[in-house]
């Protein structure tokens, strides 16, 4: 299964795939307890980098949708 990153509306990034590993900046793996992997997008999780559901309680709203012009651009 190819890895897919799906944005939940007003919620986390869902990483779907059979072989997903989450590494910290030193290359050390986090223990992944649930799959698919849900990564916090709101910045308020107490279990970063994983989502803990706090986005719902704080009313996180994200407007990003895949529309023309939203293609990834190289970092500058
Ligand atoms: S996206 Fe769920 S806690 Fe941040």
Please describe what this structure looks like:
The structure is a single chain. By secondary structure, the protein is mainly beta. Helix content is 7%, strand content 14%. It is built from 1 helix and 3 strands. It has one helix at residues 54-58, and strands at 4-7, 13-16, 37-39. The protein has a 3-stranded antiparallel β-sheet with strand order 1-2-3, with no helix packed on it. It is globular. The protein binds FE2/S2 (inorganic) cluster (FES). FE2/S2 (inorganic) cluster binds next to helix 1.
Radius of gyration, whole Å: 14 Å
Biggest pleated sheet: 3 strands, antiparallel
Q: Into which percentage range does the β-strand content fall?
A: 5-15%
Q: Give the ordered list of helices and strands.
A: EEEH
Which molecules other than protein and nucleic acid are bound? FE2/S2 (inorganic) cluster
The global form is: globular
Defining traits:
76 residues; mainly beta; 1 helix; 14% strand; globular; binds FE2/S2 (inorganic) cluster
Give a short synopsis of this structure:
With 76 residues, the chain is mainly beta.
List strands and helices in order, with pairings:
Layout lengths: L3 E4 L5 E4 L20 E3 L14 H5 L18
Antiparallel strand pairs: 1-2, 2-3
The structure holds FE2/S2 (inorganic) cluster (FES).
The site of FE2/S2 (inorganic) cluster has 12 residues, from helix 1.
């Amino acid at each position: 299964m190819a890895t897919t990153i799906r944005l939940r509306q007003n919620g986390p990034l869902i990483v779907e795939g059979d072989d997903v590993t989450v590494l910290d900046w030193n290359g050390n793996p986090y223990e992944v307890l649930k799959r698919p992997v849900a990564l916090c997008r709101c910045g308020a999780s107490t279990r970063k980098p994983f989502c803990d559901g706090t986005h719902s309680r704080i009313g996180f709203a994200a407007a990003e949708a895949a529309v023309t012009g939203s293609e990834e651009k190289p970092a500058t």
